[in-house]
Write the structure tokens for this entry.
Amino acid sequence: MPRTAPARALVRRPHAGSLIAVATTVLAAGVSLNAVTTPASASAAAAATACDTAAAGFAPVLQLDLPERGSFLNQTPPYSLDRTGEVGSNFDRVAYCVELNGPDGPQWVWTAMEPFTATAARIGLPTRPGELVRQRVGDLEVRSNVPGVTTGSGQTGYLEMWPNQYQESASTQVANASPITFDVDDNPTSPLGYGSFQVGQIGADRPSSLAAKQVFAINTFTESATGTLSLGIGTNTAGQPDWTFANNASRYSQRRLTAYVRTALVSVTESPLDRQLIPRDSRNGAVVPVAGTVTDPGVRRVQLRVTGNGRTETFSSASKSFRFTPRITAGLHEYSFELRATGPGVDRVVARRDGVVAGDVLVVQGQSNAEAAKYNGAANAEESPYLRSFGTPTSDGTISGADRVWHYATGDVTNQSGSVGQWAIRMGRKLVDTYKVPVALFNGAHGGQPISFFQRNDAAPNDLGTNYGRLRQRLQAAGVLGNVKGVLWYQGESDNDNAAVHVSGFNELLQDWRSDFGTASRYYVYQVRTSPCGTTTNMNLREAQRQLGDTAGVTLLSTNGLSGHDGCHYAYLGGYREMGDHAFAVLARDLYGGPSAGVAPPNPSAVTASGSQLVVQLRSTDPLTVDAGAHADFVVEGGAVTVASVAYQPGGKLVLTLSGPATGVTGLTYQGHLGAGPWITNATGAGLLAFKLPVT
């Protein structure tokens, strides 16, 4: 059940255009700092702050004396200074000054960072739906007089800004954040009405030896008028680390927030994003354009430095408009892009992007066994800096549409930024380690849903109210929509053995995928273990899925052979881990030139009767292991006999010995079973596909 703090609406639940256009908005620029002036109609100049020395070179654009109670939901806070309209997108750096004066005397903190938005209107308190930021920021500078706040430049920051309620469960994007307290890494939920405006200090890498700490936090500003603001500088040591529930605004006689920007010298129109994976081409790399226009007359030259794979390339232009086209190679190395503007008295880095790679894109889709949550056992050891994801698989369209950032792929949490599921993270890690190529994983799964839930709204394919639209928007915003190498589908339990509905729905999906994802995509279908959960005796849907390999041109994957099964879902060991291994083996064969022997799940082509035996002819001659007792999963139709034993024979044959002559036998079914073995498996451990075939 959700837990609610006393007298609070904060819900805490126990779960969890092109990319170049996106990059353009993030790095948008403009004219010189001197051009940011206050017209006569604007508010008076900003009041002096304790950060004025640190703010040299920046212009104040917002200032707010925070009230004890906010209640700003769907309203613009009463800023005493608001110059966001003049500034527009004309900045290349954002900064904040928070000042508090209370029992401990005056406290202040200054922090500046790379821009996280393209418009100055979004740098203030987030008070409306969709005004959500949850991401890392680079080149964080911090100054403060509060003990415990780490001062200095070149740090990594983490932003949590939204009008929503939120829960303490972590996305795991931040090293050393806690999933059981409100701190640097929390999870916004669908209900509005509490609010978070926080900057944190985190380690640049995952894992990291650095503790995750608050720089400042302003919370409770979109709650009801009775809600007292919760705020602080540094980490709260006497309650929730990020000051959630502190309700302490009345302690301070001064509570001031001032936001600043540094005016841009260059308008950047093309560039990569931090941690972006760019689909590699046939030459095992990618071109990464960086383009723009010089907007400040003092700039005489623009220089781009691209560093990665043990080398640095430098590109230079003295033209007002410029476009560089560096090429990166796919491999286990990251690239940084640093754009610098120079001239008489001018020498500034105007944009920097880190962690850029070239690699491959895979999509995971379906219901809960595609979500592959952590039921029993952790998969976090499989995470890699070369496994990426973009956005979040949440079903909340507003939150989904706001998350347009590249993240590290994570396996143990669901519905969070970067969540990809346990078997996907295992599969991806093996691809990275074996073939030395970065991989982006996009998981769009949603548990407990029939196949109709996943269909495309053809009138509005990007409809964020649909599962298809949310996934499609993520792929499109990431710049990879037409470059998906493979789609892995696991769904069918919720179709309750209705084969006709399932097959019709899947064929519609497949047609839309092939239209949207590109002609080079390969499609993989897991034959579900049960439909519905808890029974393996229903065979219509599973047999129909097996036939999709012939009728729809997809590649089949098996869920038999996995003993870590609870009747519906899987433990990591004996379940999702092995599913990842099997998927890796098939993708390695199909996409990377890997071995083919012992990879395809055993799949029958025909069953014939001879005396007291049935012979199942398989489509592959791969040797199989037949566990003692595996014969119990076979059901004979017609006649008055049962299967007494089963053995593998070379040439791809399973020979079933019956309790008597096969007279009158008309069909043979292999159902598999719930839970653990015995099984019939190939060299990779993939189990015999369930089937229902006539006997000839």
In short: Confidence is low (pLDDT under 50) at residues 1-43. The chain has nine helices and 37 strands.
